[in-house]
UniProtKB/TrEMBL annotation:
Keyword Cell membrane: yes
Keyword terms, alphabetized: Cell junction, Cell membrane, Membrane, Signal, Tight junction, Transmembrane, Transmembrane helix
Superkingdom of the organism of origin: Eukaryota
Protein name (Swiss-Prot/TrEMBL): Claudin
Amino acid sequence: MASASLQFFAFILALFGVFGGITATLLPNWKVNADVGSNIITAITQMQGLWMDCTWYSTGMFSCTLKYSVLSLPVYIQAARTTMVLSCILSAFGICISTVGMKCTKLGGDTDSKSHACFAGGVCFILAGIFELVPTSWYTREIISNFLDQTIPESSKHEPGGAVYTGFISAAFLLIAGVIFCTSCFKKQQGAWIYPPKQHHFPSTEQDSNAGYNLKDYV
């Protein structure tokens, strides 16, 4: 019962990780640059994401530009696009597979099939978390290195946006959920290995005594 509750908790974490990964992939604020200037009225906030760049003015105007050209983008943005999409796909597969393998559901057939499905769902969550953690770390490294570079003007420097933090948190949720699903299956298999089913051995003394008794009757 405790294992089923732990799996349900991991499933909730995985749901948060999936929604967080999709949100981080679509948000345009992977890096933010606030240029106040000499007048607060003309202040603008520039945000750059994986798919679009947006500019927000203090007057209330908001404009976005899509990044149509893929080859013109830096390598880390291209890699972030690919890995984040793969992370979303793997996490979605993990949700479907882990639903079949959870103990609190009636799907998946016998116990061994549910255990294998639970382990496969945990592997999907771990891979999704890794695919999401790598681009966010790489993107953050590029932001920090450009920010510390003295040759880059202040107007071109950026800071990590909300999408980066969302990616880190959702990747942690997916990794934790994947580890919980995998270890719950391992514990079950380990218990079956250490404590094998007892075999009932019937003593033959009773049969021998009965056979001797029958022979005495015929003497």
